[in-house]
């Protein structure tokens, strides 16, 4: 079944956003916002909480829907729904399955969030949307 919407969480703490480094095949890795598609009859919010837990080992609280818009041209999804989240428990670490690294990036420092740093046009555009929605751009 093709998933149409990617549900993702902008996990923010002290002006920094948590991104996961994901591996695609054996050759390509890039940073991304944790998220994915819904499973079974789970709600959007349950999906975001589950995906963040699976990819970062963090428990989060969803504060609000931050962005609901079209995805980027090279994405396998048609829409992104990005929820603003705060960490409530756990220590951010990769699961070595869906994520090979996790890192906090400073939303106030554009050099940390450049296309070169993120290594993905989709991630770069997504993070720029998040920065703008949160008033950092």
Describe the structure.
- This protein is α+β, with helices and mostly antiparallel strands and 137 residues long.
- The chain has a single domain (5-133), classed as Alpha-Beta Complex (Nucleoside Triphosphate Pyrophosphohydrolase), CATH 3.90.79.10.
- Helices cover 22% and strands 39% of the residues.
- The protein is built from three helices and seven strands.
- Strands 1, 2, 3, 4, 5, 6 and 7 form a seven-stranded mixed sheet that branches.
- A hairpin with a 3-residue loop joins β2 and β3.
- The model has no long low-confidence stretch (mean pLDDT 91).
User: What Rg is obtained from the alpha carbons, in whole angstroms?
Assistant: 14 Å
Distance between the termini: 36 Å
By DSSP, the count of extended strands is: 7
CATH architect. name: Alpha-Beta Complex
Order of helices and strands: EEEEHEEEHH
Which superfamily, in CATH terms, is the homologous superfamily?
Answer: Nucleoside Triphosphate Pyrophosphohydrolase
CATH class: Alpha Beta
**Largest sheet entry:** 7 strands, mixed
Output the structural class.
alpha+beta
Helix content: 10-25%
User: Helical stretch count?
Assistant: 3
Under CATH, the topology can be stated as Nucleoside Triphosphate Pyrophosphohydrolase
Strand content: 35-45%
Mean pLDDT: 91
Which runs of at least 5 residues are low in confidence (pLDDT < 50)? Answer: none
* Overall number of structural domains: 1
Described by the principal axes of the CA atoms, the overall outline is globular
């Amino acid at each position: 079944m093709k998933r149409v919407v990617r549900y993702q969480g902008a996990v923010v703490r002290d002006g920094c956003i948590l991104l996961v480094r994901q591996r695609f095949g054996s050759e390509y890795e890039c940073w991304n916002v944790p998220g994915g598609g819904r499973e079974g009859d789970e709600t959007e919010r349950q999906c975001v909480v589950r995906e963040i837990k699976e990819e970062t080992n963090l428990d989060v609280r969803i504060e609000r829907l931050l962005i609901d818009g079209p995805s980027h041209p090279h994405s396998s999804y048609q829409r992104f729904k990005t929820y603003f989240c705060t960490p409530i428990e756990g220590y951010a670490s990769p699961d070595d399955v869906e994520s090979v690294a996790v890192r906090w990036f400073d939303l106030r420092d554009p050099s940390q969030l450049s296309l070169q740093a993120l290594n993905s046009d989709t991630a770069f555009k997504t993070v720029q949307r998040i920065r703008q929605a949160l008033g950092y751009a």
